[in-house]
Design a protein that fits this description.
By secondary structure, this protein is mainly beta. About 5% of the residues lie in helices and about 40% in strands. The chain contains 3 helices and 31 strands. Strand 5 and strand 6 form a beta hairpin. The N and C termini lie close together (about 10 Å).
Length: about 375
């Protein structure tokens, strides 16, 4: 297993000032780069992918390294659409759930491959307080707010920007205006995807604000290392480098407790088939949808958070991050019936590197408050291999 990229060798990119971003996003919404036909640069291709309900053009960008691995990302939601990765025999398969056409993305509600924000995961009753002001968010997962609200970052077209990098890379940026989905402050966000020659996908998040707000960004890709549509992930072997997790109530809001995983169905400290203790984990529907407290983290230490292996194909995935938590979701709610594909329950797993759910209302959790002058900066590396 190769080691994650060192944080001392970050992807090089130009930083935009508030003023520049304001000019780029004066309408309050990013615009897609209009690509009339497929374009090609070294390691990167782009082609038209569809139109949003607002008639905004959507472009699909594909990063390809010299070993043949590729990652396709569209500017709608800065969404990972496809990851082609080899198995132990060198056979490439798409290992994330997604669609071959754009239209199904307008109907699905599973956040396939998208950047979710401003706040990934749930905020209890869609409400939080900063200072003496209480903010109310849309309730889109009753009785709570989920993944940024009714029109979160997953439902907006991001702006493409050039990246100075030695590897195929692309950056997407977005302005979330003051009051967007109830959140305070103009939030300027960028997400950079870089595909390295050793089959690592690096996701670097940046955000700044002009008013105190809360931020928690993540990518919501569903992985199936056997190949998308090739059955469930229940036989995948999962390792989570966490001794504890945050138990939840019936609405999937953390109770505030930090609980030891030892002796519980939530113990994945050793490689364990995901389906082994699924029924014991309970839930409605049955399955995992829990935040794990990483052994290292609290936004200061770089660490391997999770490892996954598909025994049949030999494909592996190692997730490394500087975030304090990782949300493991076993696809319990999947029931996506479209004209393109129908992904069923447990056909994909999600590993969202992030801060804890409902942190704005939990004083004992790491803070998600971002203040003017501060720089929200975090990186996750997805390392694909085969054994």
């Amino acid at each position: 297993m190769s080691l994650p990229l060192s944080l001392r060798s970050p992807v090089r990119f130009a930083r935009l000032s508030f003023g520049c971003l304001a000019l780029l996003f004066c309408s309050g919404h990013a615009r897609a780069v209009d690509v009339p036909a497929a374009t090609v640069t070294e390691g990167i291709t782009a082609r038209p992918f569809g139109l949003t309900s607002r008639k905004e053009p959507v472009t699909l960008h594909t990063l390809t390294n010299k070993s043949g691995m590729s990652v396709s990302i569209m500017d709608y939601g800065a969404t990972i659409v496809k990851i082609m990765a080899p198995d132990r025999a060198g056979k490439f398969e798409n290992v994330v759930l997604g669609y071959d056409h754009f239209t199904p993305y307008l109907r699905q509600t599973s956040y396939f491959g998208a950047i979710v924000g401003r706040y990934a995961n749930r905020i209890a009753k869609g409400r939080f307080q900063l200072g003496k002001i209480t903010y109310q968010l849309p309730i889109n997962d009753p009785p709570n707010s989920l993944h940024g609200g009714l029109r979160g970052f997953d439902k907006q077209v991001w702006k493409e920007e050039a990246v100075d990098s030695d590897s195929p890379a692309i950056r997407f940026s977005l302005l979330s205006p003051d009051g967007d989905q109830g959140y305070p402050g103009n939030l300027y966000v960028s997400v950079t995807y870089t595909l390295t020659e050793d089959n690592q996908l690096r996701i670097a998040y940046n955000a700044t604000t002009d008013k105190t707000t809360v931020v928690n960004l993540s990518n919501h890709a569903y992985f199936n290392l056997a190949g998308a549509g090739h059955g469930t992930i229940l036989d995948h072997l999962l390792t989570l480098h966490a001794d504890s997790f945050t138990p939840v109530d019936a609405t999937l809001i953390p109770t505030g407790e930090i609980k030891d995983v030892a002796g519980t169905p939530w113990d994945f400290r050793q490689p364990t088939p995901i389906g082994l203790h699924l029924k014991e984990a309970g839930g409605k529907p049955i399955g995992y949808d829990h935040n794990y407290v990483l052994k290292k983290g609290f936004f200061s230490d770089w660490a391997v958070a999770a490892e996954v292996k598909d025994p049949k194909s030999g494909r592996t995935l190692t997730v490394s991050t500087d975030q304090p938590g990782i949300q493991f979701y076993s696809g319990n709610f999947l029931d996506s019936k479209t004209s393109d594909k129908a992904y069923r329950q447990y056909e994909g797993l999600v590993l969202e590197t992030q801060h804890y759910p409902d942190s704005p209302n939990q004083s004992g959790f790491p803070s998600t408050v971002l203040m003017p002058g501060d720089d929200y900066k975090t990186t996750t590396v997805l390392d694909f291999g085969a054994e």
